[in-house]
Amino acid sequence: MNKLLKIKDENGRIIPKKIFWLAFIGVLLVCVVYIVIMFFIPVKVSVNMGSRGAFGDMFGALGALFSGLAFAGLIVTMLQQREDLQNQKDEIVLQRDEIALQRLDLEAQTEALQLQKDEIAQTNKELQLQRSEMMEQNQTIMLQRFENSFFHMLNMQQSVLRDIVYDPYFFKAINPQINGEYKGREAIVQIYFSLKKVCYNCDIKDTLNNCKTQFEKATITPYFQQIYLILDHVDRASWLTGEERYNYTSILRTTFSKEELILLFYYGLWNSKLSKLKKLIETYALFMNLQKESLFSTDHYELYEKGAYEFISSDPYNLNC
Length: 321
What we know:
By secondary structure, the protein is an all-alpha fold. The protein has ten helices and two strands. It has two domains: about 5-120, no CATH class; about 165-320, no CATH class. A two-stranded antiparallel ribbon has the order 1-2. The relative contact order is 0.06.
C-alpha cells in the first residue's frame, strides 16, 4: 500500500490522484461488463424472474469487492493526505532554514557595509587632515611670498628716497639762502621748510597748488607712489587678518621722518582723486605719529578721517564703517 502511494512523475513529484483514477476506471469497466451481461446478452423468454434473481446473486461477491475497493481507496487517500502534510512540513522547515540563511547573509552584508562606512569615514578624516596640512603649507608659502615682496618694496622705497634731489635752482625764489644740492632725507627736510614758508596758514587750495608745483620740481612723486604701492600690496592680502595687515603697515610707518609724514599728508590730499592713497592712510592709521602743530595749518588736520591718526578696530576694513 505504501509503495502504491510512492508513484511519482518525471520530476520526482508524487501524484496523489493516479491510484484513484486507476481504481475508478477499473470499477467503471466492471459496471459496464455487468450491464452488458444483464441487459444485452439474450436469454430465453421462458426463464422466469426467479432465475434472473439467482443469476443476479452471482454478482454479490462483486459488490463486496467494490465495497472493499472503496474502503481501500479511502485508506489510500488518507495516507496520501498524511504524506502531503508531511511534505508541506518539510517544505516549511526548508523555507525557515533558507530565511535563517538569508538573515545571516543580511547581517554579514550589514557588517561589511558598516566596515566600509568606517573605512570611508577614516579616509575622509585623513583627507581632511591632508587638506588642513596643505592649506597650512599654502598659507605659509603665501606668507613667505608676501613678506618677500613687502620687504623688497620697502627696500625700493628707501632706494627711491635716496634718489630724491633738492635742486636750489628750482627753490631759489622760495629760499635764496640755500646753497648746494641736497639728496635723500636732507632733501625732504629742505622741501618741507621751503613749502612751510609759502604755505603757512594758507587755505588748503593754495597749499595744495604750491605743494603740487614743488613736488614736481623735486621729483618726489615716485617716492609717494612707492608708498602707495606698499599700502596697496598689504591691503590686497585679504587672506591676512585685519590686525596682521595693520602690523605690516606699522612697519612702513616706522620708516617715516616727521618731514616725510607732513609731505605725505599733503600729497594724499592733492592726489586723492587720482588714487585711493588717502583711503589707505585712513584705513591703516598711517599718521599715528604725526604732530598736528607740524602741519602748515592746524585746520588741515581735520581733512583726514579719525582712522588716519589712531587704530580703531582689529579689522581695518571696519575702521570707517
